Amino acid sequence: MIEVRILTEVSSMTDLKIEVRSKGGVAVVEPIGYINAHTAKDFETAIQRLIDQNQNNIVINCRGLAYIASAGLGAIMGYIDAIRENQGDIRMCQMNETVFNIFDVLGFTQLYSIFESEEKAIGSFSAASS
């Protein structure tokens, strides 16, 4: 079972809303707002809950992500080895230019698959297993 956590309206850099849902056997995490030192723990908790529930195919939909700081990037990097060891992966989608540039400058575009849409990211798990 995937828990959905919804916070109030995002209005400052200390606000983060995280929606988690399941689609086609893939967990979709949608952070809305800012992932930074103030909010990274909530983001980590959402990812850890999925891992605890053996949900190792994860899409992070970035359409509502305004900014991600090193704390958020560290959270993703901190879980990727365990997820991949369990034949899963983290895929990204719908990044805005700011978030994409952060990933690109740090070389994360070489480590993670990034897709234009959530549907393509989810579908990539089926394509990879066939």
SS elements, strand count = 6
CATH T-level fold name: Transcription Regulator spoIIAA
Q: What is the correct CATH architecture?
A: 2-Layer Sandwich
Which structural class fits the helix and strand makeup?
alpha/beta
Question: What fraction, in percent, of the residue positions are helical?
Answer: 40-55%
Q: List low-confidence stretches.
A: 1-11
Please give a structural write-up.
With 130 residues, this protein is of the alpha/beta class. It has a single domain, classed as Transcription Regulator spoIIAA. 42% of the residues lie in helices and 26% in strands. The chain has five helices and six strands. Strands 1, 2, 3, 4, 5 and 6 form a six-stranded mixed beta sheet that branches. Strand 1 and strand 2 form a beta hairpin. Helix 1 packs parallel to helix 2. The protein is globular and about 35 Å long.
How do you describe this structure in short?
The protein is α/β, with parallel strands linked by helices and 130 residues long.
Notable traits:
disordered N terminus; 130 residues; 5 helices; 42% helix; 6 strands; six-stranded mixed beta sheet; Transcription Regulator spoIIAA
Task: List the SSEs and their pairings.
Elements lengths: L15 E8 L2 E10 L4 H13 L4 E5 L3 E4 L1 H16 L3 E5 L3 H9 L2 H4 L2 E2 L2 H12 L1
Parallel strand pairs: 2-3, 2-4, 3-5, 5-6
Antiparallel strand pairs: 1-2
Helix pairs in contact: 1-2
